[in-house]
Amino acid sequence: MKALLASWEDLCASSRPLRFVDVNLRGIGQVMFQDNPLSGLLFFVAIGWGSYAAGVGQVAIGGLIAVLAATSTAYWLRVDEDALHAGLYGFNGYLVGLSLATFMAPSTTMWVYVVFGGAISVVVTLAISNVFKTWNVPALTAPFVLTAWLLLLATNAFSKLEGGALPPVGEIVPIDPAVANPLQLGDFVSGVFTSITQVFLKGHGPAALLLLAGLAVNSPACAAFAAVGAVAAVVTAHMLGAESDLVTAGLIGFNPVLTAIALGAVFNRPNARVFVYALVGAVLSAIVQGSMMTLMTPFGIPTLTAAFILVTWLFLLPAQKFE
Amino acid sequence: MKALLASWEDLCASSRPLRFVDVNLRGIGQVMFQDNPLSGLLFFVAIGWGSYAAGVGQVAIGGLIAVLAATSTAYWLRVDEDALHAGLYGFNGYLVGLSLATFMAPSTTMWVYVVFGGAISVVVTLAISNVFKTWNVPALTAPFVLTAWLLLLATNAFSKLEGGALPPVGEIVPIDPAVANPLQLGDFVSGVFTSITQVFLKGHGPAALLLLAGLAVNSPACAAFAAVGAVAAVVTAHMLGAESDLVTAGLIGFNPVLTAIALGAVFNRPNARVFVYALVGAVLSAIVQGSMMTLMTPFGIPTLTAAFILVTWLFLLPAQKFE
Amino acid sequence: MKALLASWEDLCASSRPLRFVDVNLRGIGQVMFQDNPLSGLLFFVAIGWGSYAAGVGQVAIGGLIAVLAATSTAYWLRVDEDALHAGLYGFNGYLVGLSLATFMAPSTTMWVYVVFGGAISVVVTLAISNVFKTWNVPALTAPFVLTAWLLLLATNAFSKLEGGALPPVGEIVPIDPAVANPLQLGDFVSGVFTSITQVFLKGHGPAALLLLAGLAVNSPACAAFAAVGAVAAVVTAHMLGAESDLVTAGLIGFNPVLTAIALGAVFNRPNARVFVYALVGAVLSAIVQGSMMTLMTPFGIPTLTAAFILVTWLFLLPAQKFE
After folding, report:
1. Which of A163, B14, C255, C289 has its CA 20 to 30 A from that of B215?
2. Nearest Cβ partner of B313 from A127, A134, A163?
3. Are residue A230 and residue A191 in the same domain, yes or no?
4. What is the pLDDT of residue A323?
5. Residue A282 in contact with residue A228, Cβ under 8 Å?
6. Of C130, C153, C169, the CB nearest to A171
7. Count of B–C CB contacts within 8 Å?
8. Could C127 and A315 be called an inter-chain contact, meaning their C-beta atoms sit closer than 8 Å?
9. CATH code at B138?
10. Looking at CA atoms only, how far is residue A122 from chain B in angstroms?
C-alpha cells in the first residue's frame, strides 16, 4: 500500500492535472481527517453509493462540483501549498456541496450556488483557521457549518433559492416519551453504522464499511475510534431516551464519531487517559447534538456538525497533555 | 480642497472647541471609512435631508446627540488620541443614535437612552477593537450592531422603553415568489441609490448624491466601489428573486455597499484581483443580508450592518496579499 | 480572623482530605470572587438555608455534588495547582449543579447529569480561560452558563432528562405596562436583598445577610459594591418600568451585583472614576438582563449570568487604567 501511494505521489509531482486530482481526493479524505488520496477515493465511492441508493444522485455530484470549486479557488488565492496539498482547503467545500444538494431543490440556480458555496468555503476556512491558530486549534468543519448555514438561511429570502428539504420551522417542544422506544438489536447495529455515514449526510449502513476501510488504510486507530464514537453515541442516546428513529438513522451519532476520532486518534496520541477523555467527549457530543437540534428548531436549518465542532474545540482548547 | 482642509486643521490644533467639532465630523465620516471632516459634514447634511424629507427629524438629532455623547465619553476614558482625532470612537455612536431614534417611539426616556447608548458604544468599540487587533482586523461597525441590538432587545422588558418601529416578531416563512416582481429601470436605479443611503438607515435616493460627493472629496476609489457594491447587490438580489420592495428601498444593498468599499478601496489597494475579491464579497453580503433577515425574524430586531461585518471580517481575516 | 485562616491553611498543607475540603469551599467562595474558605462556607450555609426554606433542598445538594465532581475532575486533569487551590475550577461546577437541580425534575438520571455537568465544567473552564487569557481577561462564569445552557437545551431531546422547571418557550411579546407597578419601600428592600441571593439562583432575602458577611470577611469593598450593584439595578429597573415581580424577586438585579463587584473591587482598584465605571456597568447589566430574557424567550432556557459576563467582558477588554 505504501509503495502504491509513493508511486502515485511521484506521478502527481510531475503532472499538474494528477496533482489537482490528488488534492481533491485528499480534500474528501480530510472530512474524516485523512491526508490520503485512497481514503478520499473510498469515501467518495461510499457517498456515491449512498446517494445513488437513496435516489439522490445529485448529492454526490454536488459534493464533487463543490470540492473542485474549492480547490480551484484555493489555487487562485495562492494559499499555503503544503496545506493545500494535504487537502485542508477541500473538505469544507465538499461538505458544503453535499449539504446544499441535500437540503435544496435542484435547479440551475442551485448548481451555481453549489459552485459559489464551494469557492466561499475557502475564504471562510482561511478566516477561521487564522483565528483559531492563536490557540493552536484547527478550524475543523466550522467553515462548512458557517457557510452552509448562511447559504441555507438565505433560501427564505430569495425565491429562486428553494430550501425544499430543510427541517420545518417550529416552536421548541420537549420530546414525546412515546417516540423513545426500546431499540432492537438490529436497530442498534443500524444506528452504529449510519452514525458513521451521516458524517457525509447519508444514512446508508453498508456504505459505513467503505468509510471504515477508507479510515483503516490510513489509520487503524482512527477507524477504531470511529466505531467507539458510534457505539458510545447510540448507547448514550438510547439510555437518555432519545427518539428511536433519530438514533437508528444515525442522526445523533455522526457528531460523536467525529469527536472520538479527533480527540482519540488525531490530535492526541491514544492511551488510557486519552481514551477516557475521547469517550467523555463523544458522550457529550451526543447530548449536545440534542441541544443543537433544539437550538435550530426556530430557524429551520440542520445542525450539521456543530456539536462536534463545539465539543472538540472545548476539549482541545485546554491543551492538556496526556503523556 | 487640500489647502482648505489644511487651514481647518491648523484652526483645530489651536482651539479645543473646534477640535471637538472636527472629531465629531470625522466620526460621522468614518461611518463610510472617511477620516475627513468635510466628508462627515456632507454625510451629516445628507442624513438631515433624508430625515426631514421622511418626516422623522428626530432621527438626525438622535445621531447628533449620540455622536456628541460618544466623543465626550472617549475624552473621559482618555482613549488613544490619534484614533480619537481620526473619528474612530464616533461612528459607532452616531449609528447607535440613528438606530435608536429610528426604531423607538420618541420620549424623554428615549433621549436619555440615546445619550447612554452613545456613551456605551465607546466602551464596546474599545473592547471589540482590542479583540480583533489580535488578527490585525478592525472592529468595523460591530460595536454599533452589538450595542443597538442589546438596547433594542431590552425594549421588550421595560415599559418606559418603547420599540414602536421595530420589525414584527414572527415565525420564519420562505418568501412568497409573488413579491419578487421584475424590476423596472426606475426601480433599479432607485435601489442602487437607496442602497447607499441605507448605510445611514435612510431610504432617500437624492441624498445618495451627497453621500457619494462626501466619499469622492476624500477618496474617489471609495465612491466608485460604493457604486459597484450597490449595483452588484441590486443585480444579485433581483436575479435570486428577492422581494422587489426590499431591493428598491435599498434594504438588501446597504451591506454590500460597505463591503465593497472596505474590501475594494480601504483595506486593500485596488487592482484586478482585488476587484474580483471585493465583488464576490459584495455578492455574498447581499445573500447574507437575506440570511440575517431570516435569523432575526424570531427576535423582532433589525439586521443593521451585521451582514457587512460578518462578510468583511471573513474576507479580511485570511490576510491575503493581492499585490 | 487572619490567624484562624493561617492555621487552617497549615492544616490543609499537611492533610490531603482537608485540602480537598478547602479547595471546594474556596470554589464556592469564587462564585463571588472570594478566594477564602470562610467566605465559601458562609455562602454554602446561605444557599442551604435558602434552598431548605424554599422546600427545594435538592438544589443545595446538587451544588455540593457538582463542586465535588468538578474539583475531582480538576485533579484528574492535573490542572495548574495554584489556580486549583484558589478555587478557580470549582465555582462554575457549583453553579452548574445549582442550576440543573433548580430547573430539572429530580430523578436518578438528573443526579448522574449533575455529576457529569460538574466534571464537564472544568474542561469548559480551561477552554474559555485559555481563549480569554489572550486579552488578559478572566472566563468569569461563562463556563457555567455555556455548560448549563447546553445541558438544559438537551432536555428537549431526551425523554429521561426532564426540564420540569424551565421557563416556558414562547414568542417575544413586549411587556404589558400594567405589570410595572410602583414599588413599595418593602418591595424595594426585598429586591435589593434577593438581587444578592439570586447570584446563587435563590430568592431569599435574609440569606443575603450571610452572603454579605461572607464577602465582608474577605473584602469589605466587595460587600460594598455588591450593595451598590443591587441598589443600582433595582432603581434602574424600576425607573425603566420593568415587571415589578421580577424586580422584587431579584431576577433583574443579580447580574448587576456581580458586575459591580467585578468592575468596582476585583479587577480595578476602587476610586472615583472606577466607581462611575462600575456603576455604568451595573446599570447596563440591568438593561442587558432585559435583553437576555428577550433573547432566550424562543428557547425556553434561563438567562443565568449571561448579562454579567457580557457586560463585564465588554468593560474589562478595553484594559483601561483608572489610576
Report:
1. B14
2. A127
3. yes
4. 79
5. yes
6. C169
7. 97
8. yes
9. 1.10.3430.10
10. 10
CB C233 within 8 A of CB C259: no
Interchain CB distance below 8 Å, A298 and B176: no
**What span, in angstroms and rounded, lies between the C-alpha atoms of A41 and B38?**
61
| Residue of A249, A244, A247 whose CA lies nearest to A204 | A249
Q: What is the DSSP string of B156-210?
A: GT-TTS--TTSPPP----PPPGGG-PPPPHHHHHHHHHHHHHGGGT---TTHHHH
pLDDT at C1: 78
Neighbours of A62 (CB within 10 A): 29
Is A280's Cβ below 8 Å from some Cβ in C? yes
Residue C205 C-alpha, separation from nearest chain A C-alpha, in angstroms:
34
ipTM of model: 0.96
> Contacts of residue A176 in chain C, CB cutoff 8 Å?
159
Q: Is A32 left (phi over 0), alpha (psi -120 to 50) or beta?
A: alpha
Q: Which chain A residues touch C121 with a CB distance below 8 Å?
A: none
pLDDT for A182 beyond 90:
no
Q: Residue B100 has what pLDDT?
A: 98
- Which residue, of C133, C166, C199, is where some domain finishes? C166
Which residue stretches of chain A are H helix? 2-14, 16-29, 37-53, 57-76, 81-85, 91-103, 108-133, 142-153, 185-197, 207-218, 220-240, 244-248, 254-261, 272-296, 306-316
Cα(B277)–Cα(B264) distance, rounded to whole angstroms? 8
Which 8-state DSSP code applies to residue C104?
S
Residue A118 has a CB neighbour count (10 Å cut-off) of: 30
Domain boundary among A146, A164, A182: A164
Q: Could you give the CA distance from residue A317 to residue C129 in angstroms, rounded to a whole number? A: 9
Report the chain A residue with the minimal C-alpha distance to residue C135.
Answer: A134
Q: Is residue B68 part of a domain?
A: yes
CA distances from C117 to A58, B113, B277, C98, C150 (A): 42, 39, 45, 11, 10
Instruction: Provide the residue range defining the domain that includes C33.
Output: 15-166
Helices (H) and strands (E) in chain C, counts: 15, 0
pTM for the whole structure: 0.97
Q: How far is A239 from chain C (nearest CA, A)?
A: 8
